[in-house]
Description:
CATH superfamily of the largest domain: Metal-dependent hydrolases
Number of strands: 16
Number of helices: 14
Bound molecules: zinc ion
Low-confidence stretches: none
Amino acid sequence: MTGESILIESASLRGRPGLHDITVDAGAITAIEDAGSTRQSADVVIDAGSGLVTESFCNAHLHLDKVFTLARLGDHALDFYQGEGMGQAMSAIDAAAEVKRSQDADQMLALVRRATAMAAFYGTTHIRAFADVDSKAGTRGVEVLCAVRDEFSGIVDLQVVAFPQDGIIKEPGTVELLHKSIDIGADVVGGIPWIEFTENAMQEHVRIAFDLAAEYGKDVSMLLDDAGDPGLRTLEMMAVEAISRGWHGRALAHHCRAMELYPMPYLERLVALLREARVSIVSDPHTGPLHARVAELLAAGVNVVLGQDDISDAYYAFGRNNMLEVAFLGAHLLWMMTRDGQETVYDMVTTRAAESMGVADHTLAVGNPAHLVILPVPDVTEALRFQPTPLAVVSHGALVDRGGMAAIGGIPGH
Ligand SMILES: [Zn+2]
């Protein structure tokens, strides 16, 4: 995939005046020069036509094993998670479990391939993808996601998370299934401690996840405090555990919606812990009525990013794996619509997202891996306005076959 050389001509870049040419060779960015000054030839030449070229999109949170399952759940499945104050978030998890009992691997595979191709089509090259591991699904989700990860290798990097959606303590047998998942090929140890029945069980859930992470040398990704209960404290538990294990920068926090209800003195203490543990937060303000305190976290120097979270499942009706759409929604819901706010939102689906996922060197600079989008608009404001289909996508230094991705993805009009 890294054999061809690519010359992108007449590109607008963020934060640099004028137009530039970008050269890609052997998987890496090899030159960024003033437009028209490049003398080298290339296997592929793309005229950006003054369009914006940036790092490709990274999606730090997607329940990829559940995509497009809403149709099987009935009209009222969304009532629980979307309800006022999120008091019935647990009921949404129960509704989603119904699908798992009836869906087979082939059905899931087709839907997962579709969503992954959509991501590639819209310029996403890295996804942290969650697969449920529990007594209903066993390790089916991990098996399917690992197969799709291998199929899309070089196009979309899937980081497969073995995710104990229904708990570890209250779901006997899950620890064994998590071991099996990692043996099958899962990349990341998941967790969801807030759904356990007691504080002690939540703490135990966190401890078990880090035991697994330490045993296999894996990163951790946990869904935390995902309900309208200001008493939930599992983000704190994860940060403390990360520090005590030396897992700084290797534990990623998702949702943390209860944070919106925390009193200020507690939030300040929590922020100090997050900074020490180098925990990034993935927020998805478009999929639920509460969200993490993104502005305060960013101002305090905590890395915050945006994720797609769901695509047509028991939690969220919409989504097409277009991270510009996620950024546009985030700009509104997080009230980040100033010029600086727009630029930060764009970082939250590109460079900041990459950092949160452990994707190294994901900045548009000479010597770094070439994961790029070429957009048909000149700047970030226009990118957010139109959420356009890219002119081209470069992943691992190679052009993505966007026609092929549109066909698998079933993109209307393509
Ligand atoms: Zn989620």
